[in-house]
Every structure is written in structure tokens, then in C-alpha cells.
Amino acid sequence: MKMDSPKVPKDLPIKNFHDILYEEDPELEMCMVNDCTFSDEVLKKVRLSKMIIKNCKFNNTDFSHIEMTDVLFENCDFSNSNLNSSYMHRSVFKGCKLLGINLTDSRIGHVQFDHSLLNLATLGNSKLERVSFQDTSLEGSDFYDCIFKTVEFSKCNINSATFEKTSLKGIDISDSTFESLTVSIPDLNGCKVSTLQAIQFATLLGLVITD
Predict the structure, then answer these.
(1) What InterPro entries does the entry give (predicted)?
(2) Average of pLDDT values for 16-34?
(3) Residue spans per domain, the chain
(4) DSSP of 117-138, one letter per residue?
(5) Which CATH architecture has domain 34-204?
(6) Can you tell me the distance from the alpha carbon of 54 to that of 51, in angstroms, rounded to the nearest whole number?
(7) What Rg, from alpha-carbon coordinates, does the chain have?
(8) What pLDDT shows up at residue 98?
(9) Is 96 exposed, middle or buried (0-12, 13-18, 19+ CB in 10 A)?
(10) CB atoms within 10 A of CB 196
(11) Is 115 exposed, middle or buried (0-12, 13-18, 19+ CB in 10 A)?
(12) What is the pLDDT of residues 139-156, one digit of tens each?
């Protein structure tokens, strides 16, 4: 998939999320944040741009309506954080933990999730355009009523994920793994699956396959 990478300058100064906690229009840009713990906080409508964030913890933090462009996250923990109604563009989450993250009603474009954990994540009513999930676990995640446009699932665990009211036309899940999925038959039209997965779907439909 052709995707725009984050445009982040070199030699960035060090900053901290606590520095903008009480600002009326919180914004961080052209900087690096390292080893920061910013859990159980509320920082709505924050804008992030052209920055690198490494080894940070944002557990249970409310980042609703966050806007990020050209941001690289490495080894960060967003478990149970709230990023609903977010805007993400040209960003990467590498080796990140996003267990139970709320990304409902979001717009996500040119974003990569690489070797990350998104189990039980909620992305309902979101639009994903040029989004790549690579070697990522999405077990139990909810993609209810989403719009997919050039979305890639490569070597992912999508077991028990929900794709109800989300068209999978043109989506390739053939090298990802699952035991069960929640998806309607019409929305599977045009989805690319492996032979084994085709048998799994047939079994889920109640078909009896004989030699």
C-alpha cells in the first residue's frame, strides 16, 4: 500500500505533556517527548504535529477530539484512553499498547499500526483511509458501521472482531487469523480470504462441508 509517512524534522527539543495541561488551546509541535507518564488526565482538543513520542504512558487519559499530523509513537501505552472524534493523519504507532482504546467517530488517514496491541478497541462510525495494521492484535475490536478505503490487515489477529454494517469489499484478510468474526454476509462481498478462511465462513453459516 502506498502511504504518506510522517514528516518529522531532526534534532527536536524535549517537551512534556504536563507543560500544556492547563492551556486553553493545548498544542505540541516540532518536539520530542520521552518517558512521560500522563495517565488519568484530561486534555481535550490537543493538537500534535511533527513530533516523536517514545516510551510514554497515557492510560485512562481523555484525549477526545485530538488532532495529530506527522506524529511517530514508539512503545507507548494508551490502554483504556479516550480518543473519540479524533483526527489522525500521517502518523505511526509502533510497538504500542492500545488495549480498549476509544476511537469512535474518528477520521484516520495514512496511519500505520505496527506490532501493536488493539484488543477490545472501539472504532465504530469512523472513516479509515489508507490505514495499515501490520502484525497487530485486534482481538475483540469493534469496527461497527465504519467506512474502509484502502485498509490493510497484514498478519493480524482479528479473532472476535466486529465488522457489522462495514463493507469489506477489497479488504484482504487472507494472512490474518481468527476463529470467529461478527460480519454480515452482504458485507463480505469482495473480501479477499484464504481457502481455510472460506471454509471457516461456510461453517459459521451452518454449511456442512463434505469431501
Answers:
(1) 5peptide_repeat (IPR001646), PA_immunity-related (IPR052949)
(2) 94
(3) 34-204
(4) B-TT-B-TT-EEEEEEEES-B-
(5) 3 Solenoid (2.160)
(6) 10
(7) 18
(8) 98
(9) buried
(10) 10
(11) middle
(12) 999 999 999 999 999 999
